[in-house]
């Protein structure tokens, strides 16, 4: 990979991506669906941030929100900022945004089966991205596409470049998808559940490929997943989301050694362990409140074993409890409690 | 690609046999006595009887069918019962104008329908969308003879003074082109509506798919996203629809040619049926069936061009 030309007048210690109080709402027939409701986090250059949470917690909408790929309507940016290299990209023109998408910001999607266009070869789809970002020469673009396919370890890239997506396996398609997202040397790669649709051995290969590529390209990664195992293996920092909000932020080792939010505790308890005999997997009782419901207090209170009247009355702010650690819970820091 | 074409050609053989059988039965079932037609209304009964024997009409039906199949496979479609000309010659003269009319109709109506449907899909729910859908519903609902008569009345007589009787010569001549306008317009009117509606729903369907989101995430302009990644994929069902509409179009050609006195197969078959000219009608039916098979062959080839997943 080529060395990146650093953008002028950018403090190298400043975060690459800074999301501040982002709100993405959807207007539906049942009411306003607050899919993302005041989410804040930041990503350092070259670091990997994991966003975890169960289905419907707003993590995918957050990732699409960063790329400004939310369809409006029904979606609406109801507030907040998304600062990429110091600029609020929610305020730039659509034309400028297109320059960033697929250029300095790449994205990988969950479904490699459907995320590539079935009627074009993978080479054509990669070349199209190169040409949209200023590579005028078709031959050079094709050469670059083959290089990228080689980089993501697709076997015999010179011939596979002319294959259609249906001629590749799921893992190969995801490799092609990663090649597509990285072809213009992005500073930031957003990966929305990149391994969820793949079987376990292929998952491991793709994750190791992503770690490898991060070393080589220096791109920061935002990894959206519901798999805590993936987070533990891949990420530097973790953001835990619940019902459209961030409930906990921590460096990965600290999150696993001492989770501070009852929801994080519950998630971890739900992961099956090899060293303990269990007949049933742990679950978190209850279910996520309906998204259009405006609750006065903490959104997790109805399912929380530690909830008090105060929790049900007032929403807990996300507050800092240590370097790089914050939690949105009135009861934090919690001691060792068997959740 | 070649193997797809060969496959399709082989598959059309049973269809063709079915058509031949149907053509034979149809003429057995229609009222009217061929021998009487040939001999003329004032011929004596014994003359008619002699003719019947000469034409083989006194034979058992299976024998007649065998003789008919034999003639079909040797390319002998017989002679017209009215004009006594070779049926193949009559058909050969009529086929050019019909193909010409079909092409002239499709060349404007399919692109227009696709453009209208895409526009409606992109501007879904807007005034533009509703207007386009209203026009296409009208196009689907109006019978072709009515559209044809409106075209004659307004474009032909009142407003533009365009010719509406017969063919004016080859298409590349000025007169030929002017004569083509109204028939092509009327016949194409039945195709625009269905194509527009199918394109609209197909584009809407495709724009929801994941790969369109990928295209946007690549930083492509909305125009490329819609044309290269939306419309291109959406054309596959539209091509199917056009194949299905081909039969309708051939039927429409019969009406259109009759209205505009267009010297094609459609007018030939109407004339033949009205005058009980069984041999010509039989030949024309065969030509229509071949046309239908050919259109569907083209559709299948287009399919594999549009969708790499169906290529072998």
From TrEMBL, chain A:
It is a peripheral membrane protein. Residues 17-268 form the ABC transporter domain. GO terms for cellular component: plasma membrane. InterPro entries: AAA+_ATPase, ABC_Ni/Peptide_Import, ABC_transporter-like_ATP-bd, ABC_transporter-like_CS, Oligopep_ABC_C, P-loop_NTPase. Gene3D superfamilies: P-loop containing nucleotide triphosphate hydrolases. SUPFAM superfamilies: P-loop containing nucleoside triphosphate hydrolases (SSF52540). Transmembrane segments: none annotated. GO terms for molecular function: ATP binding; ATP hydrolysis activity. SMART domains: AAA. Its main location: membrane. One of its GO terms (biological process) is transmembrane transport. Keywords: ATP-binding, Cell membrane, Membrane, Nucleotide-binding, Transport. It is found in: Cell inner membrane. CDD domains: ABC_NikE_OppD_transporters. Coiled coil: none annotated. Belongs to the ABC transporter superfamily. This is Peptide/nickel transport system ATP-binding protein. It comes from Albimonas donghaensis.
From TrEMBL, chain B:
It comes from the Bacteria. It is found in: Cell membrane. GO terms for cellular component: plasma membrane. Gene3D superfamilies: MetI-like. GO terms for biological process: transmembrane transport. Keywords: Cell membrane, Membrane, Transmembrane, Transmembrane helix, Transport. Residues 95-303 form the ABC transmembrane type-1 domain. Belongs to the binding-protein-dependent transport system permease family. This is Glutathione transport system permease protein GsiC. It comes from Albimonas donghaensis.
């Amino acid at each position: 990979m080529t060395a990146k030309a650093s953008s002028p007048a950018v403090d190298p210690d400043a975060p690459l991506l800074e999301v501040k109080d982002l709100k993405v709402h959807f207007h539906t027939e049942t009411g306003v669906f607050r899919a993302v409701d005041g989410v804040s986090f930041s990503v350092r250059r070259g670091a990997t941030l994991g966003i975890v949470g169960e289905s419907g917690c707003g993590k995918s909408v957050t990732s699409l929100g960063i790329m400004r790929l939310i369809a409006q309507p029904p979606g609406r940016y109801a507030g907040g900022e998304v600062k990429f290299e110091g600029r609020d990209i929610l305020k730039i023109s659509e034309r400028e945004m297109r320059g960033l998408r697929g250029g300095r910001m790449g994205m990988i999607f969950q479904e490699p089966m459907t995320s590539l266009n079935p009627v074009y070869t993978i080479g054509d789809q990669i070349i199209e991205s190169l040409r949209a970002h200023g590579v005028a020469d078709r031959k050079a673009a094709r050469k670059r596409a083959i290089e990228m396919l080689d980089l993501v370890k697709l076997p015999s890239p010179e011939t596979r470049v002319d294959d259609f997506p249906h001629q590749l396996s799921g893992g190969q398609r995801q490799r092609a998808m990663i090649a597509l997202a990285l072809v213009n040397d992005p500073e930031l790669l957003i990966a929305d559940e990149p391994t969820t649709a793949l079987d376990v051995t292929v998952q491991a290969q793709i994750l190791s490929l992503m770690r490898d590529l991060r070393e080589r390209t220096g791109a920061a990664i935002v990894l959206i997943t519901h798999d805590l195992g993936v987070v533990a293996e891949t990420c530097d920092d973790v953001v835990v989301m619940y019902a459209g909000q961030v409930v906990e932020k921590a460096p990965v080792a600290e999150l696993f050694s001492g989770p501070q939010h009852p929801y994080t505790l519950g998630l971890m308890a739900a992961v099956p362990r090899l060293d303990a005999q269990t007949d049933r997997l742990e679950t978190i009782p209850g279910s996520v409140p309906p998204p259009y419901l405006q609750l006065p207090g903490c959104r997790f209170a109805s399912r929380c074993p530690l909830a008090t009247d105060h929790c049900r009355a007032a929403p807990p702010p996300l507050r800092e409890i240590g370097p790089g650690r914050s939690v949105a819970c009135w009861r934090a820091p919690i001691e060792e409690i068997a959740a | 690609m070649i193997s797809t074409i060969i496959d399709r050609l082989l598959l059309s053989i049973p269809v063709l046999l079915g058509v031949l059988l149907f053509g034979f039965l149809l003429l057995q079932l229609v009222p009217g006595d061929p021998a009487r037609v040939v001999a003329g209304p004032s011929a004596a009964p014994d003359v008619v009887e002699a003719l019947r024997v000469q034409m083989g009409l006194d034979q058992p039906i299976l024998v007649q069918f065998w003789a008919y199949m034999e003639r079909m496979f040797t390319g002998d479609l017989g002679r017209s019962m009215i004009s006594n000309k070779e049926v193949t010659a009559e058909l050969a003269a009529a086929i050019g104008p019909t193909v010409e009319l079909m092409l002239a109709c499709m060349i404007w109506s399919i692109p227009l329908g696709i453009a209208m449907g895409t526009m409606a899909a992109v501007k879904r729910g807007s005034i533009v969308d509703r207007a386009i859908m209203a026009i296409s519903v009208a196009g689907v609902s109006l019978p072709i003879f009515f559209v044809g008569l409106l075209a004659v009345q307004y474009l032909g007589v009142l407003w533009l003074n365009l010719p509406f009787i017969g063919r004016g010569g080859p298409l590349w001549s000025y007169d030929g082109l002017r004569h083509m306008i109204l028939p092509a317009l009327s016949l194409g009117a039945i195709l625009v509506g269905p194509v527009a509606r199918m394109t609209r729903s197909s584009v809407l369907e495709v724009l929801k798919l994941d790969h369109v989101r990928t295209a946007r995430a690549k930083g492509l302009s909305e125009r490329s996203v819609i044309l290269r990644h939306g419309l291109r994929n959406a054309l596959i069902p539209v091509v199917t629809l056009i194949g299905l509409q081909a039969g309708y179009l051939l039927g429409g050609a019969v009406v259109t040619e009759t209205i505009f006195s267009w010297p094609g197969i459609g007018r030939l078959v109407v004339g033949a049926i009205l005058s009980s000219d069984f041999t010509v009608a039989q030949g024309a039916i065969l030509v229509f069936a071949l046309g239908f098979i050919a259109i569907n062959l083209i559709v299948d080839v287009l399919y594999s061009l549009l969708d790499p997943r169906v290529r072998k």
